[in-house]
Amino acid sequence: MVNYITDLSLIDYTAYALQFLLIFIAVAIVVHKNNGTIIILIASFSLVTASLYVINNAPDVAIAEVAIGSAIIPLIYVISISRQREFIVLDKAMDDFIISDNQFTGIGYILLKRFSDFYHLELNITNDPLLCRLGEGKDQILCEQTNVDLIVSKDPASGEYILKGKASNILMNKLEQMTKDYDNIRVIKFKDRDFGE
Amino acid sequence: MSRQIVLILLLGALFAVFTMSIIELEGLYNAFGKEYFLEYGQSDTGSNNLVTAILLDYRLFDSLFEAGILLIAVSGVIWISKHDIEEKNARFMIDKFKTPDLFITFSRLVYPLMLAFGFYVIINGHLSPGGGFQGGTIVATAILILYYIDADKETNIGLIVTVEKIVYLLIIVLASVSIVTRGTFFTNFFPLDATQDTKAIYLVLLNVLIGFKVALGLWTIFTAFLKEGR
What we know:
The complex is a heterodimer of chains A (197) and B (230).
Chain A: H1 2-31, H2 35-55, H3 59-84, E1 86-91, H4 107-118, E2 122-126, H5 129-132, H6 139-145, E3 150-154, E4 161-166, H7 171-178, E5 185-190
Parallel strand pairs in A: 1-2, 1-3, 4-5
Antiparallel strand pairs in A: 3-4
Helix pairs in contact in A: 1-2, 2-3
Chain B: H1 2-28, H2 32-45, H3 50-58, H4 60-80, H5 101-123, H6 132-149, H7 157-176, H8 178-181, H9 196-228
Helix pairs in contact in B: 2-3, 3-4, 4-7, 4-9, 5-6, 6-9, 7-9
């Protein structure tokens, strides 16, 4: 009988310790800045919650919590974040603005490189012929439906380089600020449309 | 300033209502349901796991709509991530995304074990903790690991969604068979005085169908996420 009571209180103490740990992890998730660390913290949050469910005699809920909270949700986050790390530029201008002599030395490249380094993004420049052949009017649809973040094209009349991107992309504001001093660069932001419009 | 005062007053009122409702609940609480399920649950439904007994027999009507919610969520994800142009994503000059070799080797070892554990949880849903939903989630995670092993794997989303819908219809049909044999909707179709092993056939069938459906639904969601950036 005595043994039973001490066992019970040990479980109680464990539950209290886990609850404090839960608050600790929750604060850490909010405070941390590194995305990878946050994913691991979310997964550990679910594990601690699952052990609390087991202590409270709910193993069914605990299995669901482990499977969803610490396997599926972190994996989906990993997929989403690995997609977000790139800044994809479609080069429609095809002249020495970005590539000169088959090397990335153009003034536009230096500008974009500085910009993507500022946000710790990987700059990825493409000149996919299939996408470049699409007309000017298709640019907004291109930005919305593919993962291209920025389109670089040249205005044949004035010789200005035009950078086009979505207005909802907060990075565009920074890009506009950075290119303010250049006379031959213009930034155009597309307004977002509602679904089905 | 006045807005903040009103806000604080509203929050106080909300807190008071909340506390009162908890006090009310204290008076309403009784152990009737718990005792009923403990006494009759196993003989009524043939399930050792009382959670499964409630989920797949006493409250099957609620479970059907829970399964429907996942179907609606999947439709929503597919609708939002729909692309009109085929082959629309750019081929890159520099493709730097590569999965580490260690992770691939380890995934190949873990994948069959995860699949087996998922099926175990589904099939033993009426005997041990777990069931269709939990097991289906584990199977879906195992399938997701396949995508890390082979990044260029092609998936036909349309086929998966169609099969999922058919399986959902099968669940509803299986749940409604009891109107013919027993005269009531949404319960075990074997008679009430059948042995526990006979009743378990129905539970295993329903658990397998639900697990299948959940795994397919989550698979679709992963594929939508993976296709988004490719």
